[in-house]
Amino acid sequence: MSSASNQDYYVPHGTHWPIIGSVGLSLTVIGFANFLHGTWSATPIFVGIAILIFMMYGWFGTVVKESLAGTYNAQVDMSFRWGMGWFIFSEVMFFAAFFGALFYARMYSVPWLDGGSNNDATAQYLWPDFEATWPLLTLPLADKFEVAKATMNAWGLPFINTVILLTSGLTVTLAHWALKRRDNVWLVYWLFATVALGFGFVILQGVEYVHAYQDLNLRLDSGIYGSTFFMLTGFHGFHVTMGATMLLIIMIRAAKGHFSPENHFAFEAVAWYWHFVDVVWLGLFIFVYWL
Amino acid sequence: MYTETTHDAAHGEHHDHGPAKGLMRWVTTTNHKDIGTLYLWLAFIMLLYGGSMAMIIRLELFQPGLQWVEPHFFNQMTTMHGLVMVFGAIMPAFVGLANWLVPIMIGAPDMALPRMNNWSFWILPFAFTMLASTTFMEGGAPAFGWTFYAPLSTTFAPDTTDFFIFAVHLMGISSVMGAINIIATILNMRAPGMTLMKMPLFVWTWLITAYLLIAVMPVLAGAVTMMLTDRHFGTSFFDAAGGGDPVMFQHIFWFFGHPEVYIMILPAFGIISAIIPTFARKPLFGYSSMVYATASIAILSFMVWAHHMFTTGMPVAGELYFMYATILISVPTGVKVFNWVTTMWKGSMTFETPMLWALGFIVMFTIGGFSGLMLGVAPVDTQYHDTYFVVAHFHYVLVTGALYSIIAAFYYWVPKWTGHMYDEKLGKIHFWWSTIAVNVLFFPQHFVGLAGMPRRIPDYSLQFAEFNMISSIGGFAFGLAQVFFLYIVIKTIKGGEKASAQVWEGATGLEFEHLPSPPPYHSFTEAPPVK
C-alpha cells in the first residue's frame, strides 16, 4: 500500500494492443487446428504469430517508453512485481500438471497395467507378457507404437545442460550485481554470457533430441515414457527459448542504458523468470533423467 | 533489492479524460467500470445462449421417447450448455462484478494493470465464438460432456474438438490474466488505512478465488494440451496401450474441477455477506471467521478432487480419504451459513429485491449443500453417481447458488452503477417467478435421480415421465423469467427513480459512503479516508 495520492498512479488511456493480440492469438490457434485437419497450410499460423510479435513489440515498446519518461511511480512498480510473481506461479502450475502425469504414470498406471493393486486378473487376461519397469521400454500393446530401444542417459548431455543452466543462474546474478554498482559494461557482458548459455542449452537440447530420435528410437509416440519425456523437456525448452529471448532484449536495453540501480524492474522480472526455468530443469533432471 | 522509483508531476492530465466516443470506446477501454460492464453483458448473453440449450434439453425430456432432436445433438446440447454456463456465464459475471466493485470498495483509482484488464476481456468473445461455431461444423459441437473425459474426447471425438481445446486455452489465458490483475489490485491498490482485515468480504472472497484461478487454470490448460497431443502427435497420456491411463485424465481434470466449483461460489459468499447486513441493519456476524472459513474452503478444495470419481476405480483407502476430506468442507461452509443467519438474528429486517435473492440463496444453496454431503459419502455415491440426483445437486448450488447471488448483486449495486433504482415491483415478481419455477424445475430431479434415472440421456424409462414433465414446465417458466430479467435490466439502465449516494438505508462501504450514484468515470482519484 502506498500513501501517495491516487492521482500519481498511472491509469493509461485506451489501448488498441489487446484487440490486436486477440486477433493474433485466435488466428494462430484456428490456423493450427485447421493445419492439423489438413484444411489449411501452415501460413495462417505464422501470420498469427507475426501479429502476436507485432503486438508484443508495440505494447512493451509503449511500456518501456512510459517507464523511461518516469510515468510509473513506486506503486505502479509494485503492481508489475505482483503481476510477474503470480504469472510465474501460474507457469509453475502448468508444469505441475505434466509432472503430475509423470508421477501418476510411474506410481499408478504402469504398475497397475502389470497387475498392481487389485488388477492382477485384468493384466493376466489383457497383456500377460507386459512387465512394469521405468523408464518404460516394453508396452502393453507394443505393435501400436514406435518402441524406444534405450533410455536417455542422465550423465551425458543432460548433465552438461544442468551445469550450463546453473552457471547461467550465476551469471545473471553477477549481471544484477554489476547493475547495482552502476557498472554497465559488466552488466552487458554478464547478460551476454547468460544469453549465450541459454541458447547453448537450447542447441544442446536439440542435439539430444536428434540423438533420441535417431539412435534410441525414443520418440513422442514411444508410449508414456516418450510422451512425458518430450512434453516435459519440450515445454521446458520452449520456456528457455522464451527466457533467453527476453534476456537478449534486456541486454540490448541495458546496452542502451535503460537501467539504473533504482529502476530496473524489467531486468528483475526476467531474472526471476530465468531462475524459475532453472528450478524446473532441476526437477526434470532428477525425475525425468536421473531417478 | 528494490528502491523507489522517482516520478515527475507531468502526467496529471491522464485522469481527466472521460470515455471515448462510439464503438472504439468499448474495444480500447482501460476503465474498470467499462470492462466490468462488458464482462456482465457477455455473461448475460452467454446465460441466454446456454439457457436456450437448456430449453432444448427440457423440451426433449418433456416426454419419454425421442421427440425433437437426435441423440447425438442432445449430447452436444448437454455438453455445450455446461461449458457455456460455467465458462461463459458464471465466471465472467463474477469477474465483471470484481471489475466494477473491487476498485470502488478498496478506494483504488482503477485496476492495477488496466491494459491487461482489457485483454483479459477481449480474448473471451473470440474464444466463445470459436467454441460456439463448432455447432455448425461437420462432426458437430463437443458431445462428450462438459468434463470431456478421455477417451471420448481423444480417440472417439470429431475434428471440431480441437477448436474446443483451443477455446479452453484462450479462456484459461483470460482467466489467469484477470486473476493476476485482481490480486495485484487488492494487494497493492487499497486506500491508506484499508488493512486486509477491514476489506469487504467480497474483496476477500475474490482475493482467494483469484488465487484458486491462477493455481488451477494452468492445470486445465495442461490437461487439454495432453488431449491435443494424444489426438494428433501420438502421445499416450490417456491410452493404456502405451502405458498411460484414461483415469489419469479424470484425476488431472478434477484437480482443476474441484477448485473450479469454489471459484464459482466463493465470490457468491462475498456478495451475500454484503447484502444480508445491509437489510438486517446489523454488521456482519463473525467477520474474521468468514475470512478464515473462506481460506479453509480454498485450501481443502485442492485435496478432495477424487470424490468425483468414486465409481471410476480407486483403492478403498483412497475412497475413504476423499470421503472424509470432502465432508470436512461442510464445517467452514456451515460457519458461513450460521454467520449469515446470526447476522439476521434480531435485525431490523426489510425485504427489498436484493435481500429476497440473498435469502433465496441461503435457503436453496443449503439444500444443494446437503445433497452434496450425501454425494460425498462414497458408499451411497455408488448409487447416485451419474444420475439426475447429481444434476439436481449441482443446479441447486450453481443456479440457486451462484446465479442467484449474481442476480442479487445486480439488484443491490445497479442503483450505484447507473444512478437509477430498478422497479421494485418488477424485481419482486422476477424473484418469486424464478424461485417457484426453479424449484419446480430441479426439485423433482432429486426423486428421478434417486429412482435411477441416468443423466445425459435423451430418453428414459416410463416411470420417470410425470416428474420429467413437471421439471420441464418449471424449466420453461424459469427460462422465460430470465428474458423478463433482460427487460428489467434494460429498463433500469434507461431510466428510473434517482438513487441516492447511499442507495440503501443500511448500506456501508466506500462505494456507498464516498461516491455519488452513478460514480464518475474515474472514481477515487483521491484516496478516500478509511475509518
What would your notes on this structure say?
The complex is a heterodimer of chains A (291) and B (531). Chain A is mainly alpha-helical. Helix content of chain A is 71%, strand content 0%. Chain A has 8 helices and no strands. In chain A, helix 1 runs antiparallel to helix 2 (43-68), helix 6 (184-216) packs antiparallel against helix 7 (224-255) and helix 7 packs antiparallel against helix 8 (265-290). The mean pLDDT of chain A is 95. By secondary structure, chain B is mainly α. Helices cover 66% and strands 0% of the residues of chain B. Chain B contains 17 helices and no strands. The longest helix of chain B is centred in the N-terminal third of the chain and has 36 residues, at 71-106. The two termini of chain B are 33 Å apart.
Q: What's the overall geometry of chain A?
A: globular
Largest interface: A-B, 87 and 93 residues
Give the C-alpha Rg of chain A: 23 Å
Q: Strand percentage of chain B, roughly?
A: under 5%
Q: Would you report the number of β strands of chain A?
A: 0
Query: Strand share of the residues of chain A?
Result: under 5%
The average pLDDT score of chain B comes to 95
Please give the share of residues in helix of chain A: over 70%
